[in-house]
Every structure is written in C-alpha cells, then in structure tokens.
C-alpha cells in the first residue's frame, strides 16, 4: 500500500452507474466454480438505485460510468487471454488515465508510497515526485513500517492512498489510522484504486465518518468463496509481472 502526500484542492463527488457489458473474464484464474457475465458496476445499478447508492457513498467517485475508455481498458484487463506485455501496457494506460482523471483538479507537490506498480504509473503521470515506502503485515494488515513518511506529512493539503485491487478494507483502514495518528486531517486523505468490492466501498464511506475521499476506476460485483473480487483482475501483481 502507498500513501502520496500532495499539495492542492481535494478531489470529491459521487457517481452513478451505467451498464457496460464485460465478460466473466478471470473466473478460472480466480478459482471460481462457475462463469457468468457481469455488468459494469452492477453492484451500484442505474437510475434510482444508482442515485441511492451515490447518496450513501457521497465521498466515493467511480470513474468507469463516466468514461468509456476506462470501461474498455478494464474489459481488456479482465480477459484472461490478456497476458505479458499486453497486460502491462493496458494496465499502465489505465492507471495513468485513472491518475489523470482523479487528480486533474489537484496541484501536486510531493508523494509518499509502497506498491511499485502504481508508483511507476504515478511518476509517469505526475513527473518528478518524492516516493516514500509504507508496509503492512500480510495477515493482520496492520502498518509495520511507516518510518519513511515525511516528517511534515501533517502539513500536506492532500494525502493519496494508492491500492491496485481492494477486496479487503482492513489494510487501507490501518493506513488511514496511521496517517491520522501522524496528524494528517482525515479530510485531506483520498484513496485511489483500480477496483474494489461493494463491501469495501461501504466501509470506506464510513471510515473517519466519511471524511476521506475515494476515487476508483470501478466497483466490482462482489467476492467469491476464496475472497477474490468478481469479475476482478485476477492476481494483479502476478499478471502484471508475467
């Protein structure tokens, strides 16, 4: 997980959902017992249902319904036939586009971090940035090392928490807690992700009383019996490193 400290105005807004079709995609890769078709952001729905979801998640911005290019890139990444250099190229483009759209209104200054894949995409998008590592325990999800975070973190106007795939809210919750304990205002924290489960979105809408901002490329339909997101992106870091 990584945290990015920046200077500028906070990005916010809620989004309604639309209905882009995507293939069942990575079901086999994720170990699911059955394959089916999914609609983009089907957990949010559309029309009145989407409006209710947006009202209940006012701190969360979902970009896929508003951007056809993000939908196409996600569909390509979900296809288990997309491997190797093709997967990395599409993932890099999606992450760069996600940062461009999520941070368009934010003047950037400095950054802190922990997951190399998103960090590289962020550098390409934002140019020269300061990167600091934060690590979490794989079992408890608790922060085990945040010593490289800048001493003046509490003075930053915006702190971004970057997570590729969120099927569990605990790691992010622990990092947000570590940041607030260092004096970072909860209203200055924005979580940026490629995808997350509906349950994670629900939890993030309540952390610190809903004060943190969240920007995600999409919201997946749920998780399977093994805890994998469905339709998901497979084991993202393994596919990216193929």
From TrEMBL:
It comes from Cafeteria roenbergensis. SUPFAM superfamilies: PRTase-like. This is Phosphoribosyltransferase domain-containing protein. Residues 118-240 form the Phosphoribosyltransferase domain. Gene3D superfamilies: 3.40.50.2020. Keywords: Signal. InterPro entries: PRTase-like, PRTase_dom. The lineage of its organism: Eukaryota, Sar, Stramenopiles, Bigyra, Opalozoa. Residues 1-27 form the signal peptide.
């Amino acid at each position: 997980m990584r945290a990015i400290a920046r200077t500028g105005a906070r990005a916010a807004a809620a989004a309604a959902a639309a209905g882009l079709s995507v293939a069942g995609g990575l079901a086999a890769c994720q170990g699911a017992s059955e394959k089916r078709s999914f609609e983009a952001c089907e957990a949010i729905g559309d029309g009145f249902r989407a409006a209710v979801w947006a009202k209940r998640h006012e701190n969360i911005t979902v970009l896929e319904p508003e951007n056809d290019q993000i939908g196409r890139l996600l569909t390509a990444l979900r296809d288990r036939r997309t491997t190797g250099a093709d997967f990395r190229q599409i993932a890099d483009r999606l992450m760069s586009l996600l940062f461009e759209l999520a941070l368009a209104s934010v003047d950037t200054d400095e950054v802190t971090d922990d997951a190399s894949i998103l960090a590289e995409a962020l550098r390409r998008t934002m140019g020269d940035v300061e990167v600091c590592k934060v690590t979490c325990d794989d079992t408890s999800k608790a922060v085990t090392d945040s010593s490289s975070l800048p001493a003046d973190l509490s003075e930053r106007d915006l702190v971004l928490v970057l997570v590729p795939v969120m099927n569990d809210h605990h790691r992010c919750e622990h990092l947000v807690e570590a940041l607030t304990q260092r004096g970072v205002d909860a209203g200055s924290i924005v979580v940026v992700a490629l995808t997350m489960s509906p349950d994670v979105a629900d939890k993030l809408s309540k952390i610190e009383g809903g004060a943190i901002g969240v920007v995600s490329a999409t919201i997946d339909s749920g998780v399977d019996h093994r805890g994998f997101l469905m339709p998901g992106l497979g084991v993202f870091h393994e596919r990216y490193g193929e």
